């Protein structure tokens, strides 16, 4: 059974380590803050100038004055700090953020990512994605495996405007966990969603897919 958006976020939360600073992009990545495992402390940063974001607010509990870089309402944990965007981008460009979780429209099997623009459609803005992909060493993409038309979003080459080249390290979708092969051979299938077969993942992946032996199910 394919994961829902919270399932994707929960799997990504398992990648976090105690004491890390983590930047969350808009969309599915914002849900990661709701699923941090017990016993670890993670500081979430947003490029509009906040360190210490909390879980995504429930409906009716939003504070319109408290938003992330994607203009989504957020919560703040006790001790959260606020600062200007220049300081925030200084953290990013200075590589003081240990992990970045981004949404994407497309990811290529060499690690290219397209996540900021569809030609002819209105977008909220480029945000800090291009700084993040240029500066962060550990980039995970949270996305659905296919688009609404059932077409793969994991491609041989991105067709949309590129945000960054050869920067993605791992992709977590509703069907699978995949790593980008450092030798450029394609997507390595690491885990599959509960009840999802390797064949289903292969059929939904346009890019090169490496299947090496038995592929375990995700543990959520």
TrEMBL record:
Superkingdom assignment: Bacteria
InterPro entries, alphabetically?
Answer: 3-oxoacid_CoA-transf_B, CoA_trans_fam_I, CoA_transf_AS, NagB/RpiA_transferase-like
Name assigned to this protein: CoA transferase subunit B
Any GO molecular function = CoA-transferase activity
Q: Which Gene3D superfamilies match?
A: Glutaconate Coenzyme A-transferase
Q: Which family does it belong to?
A: Belongs to the 3-oxoacid CoA-transferase subunit B family.
One Pfam entry for this protein is CoA_trans
This protein's record includes keyword Transferase: yes
- Species of provenance: Phaeocystidibacter luteus
Q: State the UniProt keywords alphabetically.
A: Transferase
